[in-house]
Write a structure and sequence with these properties.
Blueprint lengths: L5 E4 L2 E3 L21 H21 L9 H21 L7 H16 L15 H32 L9 H48 L3 H45 L3
Antiparallel strand pairs: 1-2
Helix pairs in contact: 1-2, 1-3, 2-3, 2-6, 3-6, 4-5, 4-6, 5-6
Length: 264
């Protein structure tokens, strides 16, 4: 449960806001880029690598412990994300897609881990860089497998569409493939984690203030409601965190497939 509170005077409470996403360098006088979100992102990478190492370094015929968890994640990503979009090419891209799914999932879950309590994806730079990596792979694959002309033709071609209609259709589909898809890929993840973090901070600050800081007969009910809503919203936020990791990896597989197959 998050307990960050913004106090403007000893007698009043103010809802948390954008200050939740503003971080000073970890070390005074140190690099400005070395902030809490960067440290959490590095920790997330270590966690993902450690889990994969523990699961797959010495696999056994009968999986147990971390291997069971690792194989469950692998099968989930393969069956629910990779194969529906990539078909026979799914296994070739499982390393990337599993890494994306686990990385985003750990990023998101950091928002409900005590003492950390910040989802990395709520800082827009992180999902943007990850989405740009997938975007670059999509363009590279499209040009490599089909050439520039063939790739563009595969995107804009629509069977049965009259020639005169391409003047309207082609700009829209090209904008969707090269601009909108990138924007929606990272903004969906960022917006959900940003909003969820704000909501959790709001309800937890209400509960902390009215139950622990300024307990009064009139405010006790509000404080208890804030605590209950924090618990409920934390459970709901964990579901959203998993869902957003799934959707981000799903879109990544769709974009990679579009590059391989030369279609939108």
């Amino acid at each position: 449960m998050r307990t960050t509170i913004l106090i403007t005077s000893p007698e009043e409470w103010q809802a948390p806001g954008l200050e939740l996403f503003q971080f000073a360098p970890i070390f005074p006088g140190g690099p400005e880029w070395l902030t809490k979100p960067v440290l959490i992102a590095l920790l997330s990478s270590v966690i993902v690598m450690a889990v994969c190492w523990a699961a797959f370094a010495k696999p056994k015929i009968v999986p147990r412990g971390w291997q069971s968890i690792g194989e469950y994640c692998y099968v989930f990503v393969r069956e629910q994300i990779a194969r529906p979009n990539l078909g026979k090419d799914a296994d070739r891209w499982m390393g990337l897609l599993l890494t994306i799914f686990l990385t985003v999932l750990v990023w998101n879950l950091m928002g409900v881990i005590p003492l950390i309590q910040f989802p990395v994806a709520a800082h827009i730079a992180f999902p943007l860089v990850l989405a740009l990596s997938v975007y670059g792979a999509k363009l590279y694959l499209g040009v490599r497998h089909h050439g520039v002309r063939g790739y563009l033709k595969g995107i804009v071609h629509l069977p049965g569409l009259p020639g005169w209609a391409y003047g309207l259709y082609a700009p829209m589909i090209l904008a969707e493939v090269f601009l909108t898809s990138l924007f929606t890929h990272f903004v969906r993840l960022f917006a959900n984690m940003f909003a969820g973090h704000i909501l959790l901070a709001f309800f937890s600050s209400v509960g902390f203030w009215f139950v622990f800081e300024r307990l009064t007969p009139l405010g006790a009910g509000v404080g208890v409601l804030g605590v209950v809503m924090t618990i409920v919203m934390t459970a709901f936020e964990m579901f959203i965190q998993f869902l957003q990791a799934f959707l981000f990896a799903m879109l990544a597989s769709m974009f990679i497939a579009s590059g391989l197959h030369g279609s939108h």
